[in-house]
Write a sequence for this structure.
């Protein structure tokens, strides 16, 4: 249970009810971070606009590279909600979620391509405290993805750090978007 309970559909005004309807239609349930953030309507609306804009703008990287990096951040921060939701998004993208069980061994696991390994290592370096990103790493990423791709990757990793840290701080945990499959996927520190 989150530290701040979400706004229920019964408590929602007309605008929020429409947003809840849209979220439920798109994801099968109203995401708990959405319901919790609904206590601050301005930030919720800003977040929805931002997330939709980021989704539309993200075309430079293959989905598998972007989603693996985002998943790795969620796993590293320890946000079980983000791991659950991210696993569902990867499944809906048609990506292989079974290999997520081996993400700890990404550097040597055959399930990951060279470019995926670069992105996951970058997610690790950006999420570390303090960050451990190197000039050489960014050069290698630029060779693999181009400048636009590196900017997109960096943005998504930073954005997931924000999401995962907010959800984790508010005590928002997995919601069952993967019908229990997320429970079989290891999370850091779990």
């Amino acid at each position: 249970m989150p530290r701040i309970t979400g706004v229920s559909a019964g408590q929602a005004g007309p605008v929020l009810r429409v947003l809840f309807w849209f979220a439920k239609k798109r994801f099968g349930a109203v995401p708990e971070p959405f319901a919790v953030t609904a206590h601050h309507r301005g930030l919720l609306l800003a977040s929805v606009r931002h997330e939709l804009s980021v989704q539309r703008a993200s075309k430079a990287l293959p989905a598998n590279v972007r989603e693996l990096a985002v998943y790795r951040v969620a796993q590293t921060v320890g946000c079980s909600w983000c791991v659950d939701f991210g696993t569902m998004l990867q499944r809906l993208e048609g990506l292989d979620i079974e290999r997520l069980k081996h993400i700890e061994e990404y550097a040597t696991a055959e399930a990951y391509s060279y470019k995926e390994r670069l992105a996951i290592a970058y997610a690790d370096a950006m999420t570390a405290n303090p960050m451990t990103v190197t000039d050489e790493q960014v050069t290698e990423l630029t060779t693999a993805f181009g400048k636009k791709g590196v900017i997109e990757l960096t943005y998504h990793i930073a954005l997931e750090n924000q999401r995962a840290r907010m959800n984790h701080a508010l005590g928002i945990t997995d919601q069952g978007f993967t019908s229990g499959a997320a429970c079989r996927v290891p999370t850091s520190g779990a």
